[in-house]
Write a structure and sequence with these properties.
Serine Threonine Protein Phosphatase 5, Tetratricopeptide repeat, 2 domains, 192 residues, TPR-like_helical_dom_sf, Sel1-like, disordered N terminus, single chain, mainly alpha, globular
Length: 192
């Protein structure tokens, strides 16, 4: 057993064949149902992108069909602001069935930072993610319906999707649902 810590330990673990575990440890999203250990995930703001990119690339070499690795690589590029690279990794993960990747593609289109801004595409990706059963996707799709992002507002559908996300434990969906009930469409709830 090695006593290395920090980046040196990460490199040693990669050499020992632990790239998949290292990618998981460095880049798993707290809301991704594909994350292998929801007790050990990384908030986006805390993601150490350069280390995660190296680990996730090696992990993908070892297991190219494991969708969560492509999602985590995309997340790492996203953290760096390399949004074209993030999109490509997310697209591969989405092609493999990752609902989490669909959410993040929608966010890329919604935000449009160093990427194409397109609310219609964002809404469509959020819908795909919602239909795949991802609570974060349900919430994001509800925000688009609520606030008229990429189409007309639809209060009834927004309530339905907020409620579905809330039933699956998404606290911000419960809050948005209450605001929608009180104030009507246009709550300003955001998916980002």
């Amino acid at each position: 057993m090695t006593s290395l810590i920090g980046p040196a330990a990460a490199l040693e673990e990669l050499r020992d064949g632990g790239a998949i575990q290292m990618c998981d440890r460095l880049a798993s999203a707290p809301w991704d149902p594909d994350a292998p250990d929801l007790q050990h995930t990384v908030a986006f703001q805390s993601l150490r992108a350069s280390e995660a990119i190296a680990a996730c690339r090696e992990a993908i070499d070892q297991a190219p069909r494991l969708r969560r690795l492509h999602f985590q690589l995309g997340r790492s590029f996203d953290r760096l602001g390399a949004n074209q690279d993030a999109f490509q990794a997310y697209q591969r993960a989405a092609d493999l069935g990752s609902g989490a990747a669909k959410v993040n593609i929608g966010i890329l289109f919604r935000q449009g930072r160093r990427f194409e801004k397109n609310d219609v595409k964002a809404r469509s990706w959020f819908l795909d993610a919602a239909k795949s059963g991802i609570p974060e996707g349900m919430y994001c799709y509800a925000t688009a319906l609520d606030n008229g992002i990429g189409g007309l507002p639809d209060v009834a559908s927004a309530k339905l999707w907020y409620a579905k996300a809330a039933e699956r434990g998404t606290a911000k969906a419960r809050d948005a649902l209450v605001r929608l009930e009180i104030d009507g469409a246009g709550t300003g709830a955001r998916c980002d």
